[in-house]
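Entry:
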Amino acid sequence: MKKKADPEAIKNEMMTYLEEKYGEEFVPMSLSLSNFADSYDSLWAYPKNGTKRDSFEVWGTRMEDGSYSMSDGYFGIYIKPKYEEVLSGFVGDVYKEFKLFTDFGEGILPDRLNKETKIEEIYSKDEVFSSDTVIFVKQESVAGVDVEASLREIAERMRKNKMVVLVRLYVVHNEKFQSIGPGMQNLSALRESGYFVGDYKSVMVTSDLKIRQNGKEVKTDG
């Protein structure tokens, strides 16, 4: 007869794993044990020095040899400020006033990613790590700028840093720019409230480090 799983023991094992891997404390939230639909235990947690908005998932699987294999999504929370700082450096060379927010989504990330990982070391052609980045640019900052050309230039710098990114750029009416708050926004609500000048422009760096814009591959310089 298979021994019944002990939820408290599993939670403690996951918390120990996190603290040893990242060298900081975390707060556990909800734990779901494996079942017919999911082959893994799932714990949601957040960093003690953060908030519940920084929550992420930890997966745990009991292996055939009796060991317990774990992986998590915290790296996306940890690296987000640094990632946004790098992207903001690229955008700031083109636009004077803008706000930039990146989201890595939910889910588990490759276990090799930790606090020692540099931005340029994140990429691996055999793994999935991508971001959805939204840039809000104040209308007066786009005067005389070819927005689509600027996005290609920004994307080229992202590509050279091996950053797999989907970027959407919204031009915001001058009088509404300051009222855009921190973090990812409800874009539909902002659009309905008349925040944007025209439609957004986008560009992406794909998982094979190609640049695509308007459905077509963009020629790069190497």
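Residues 15 and 26 are 7 Å apart (CA to CA).
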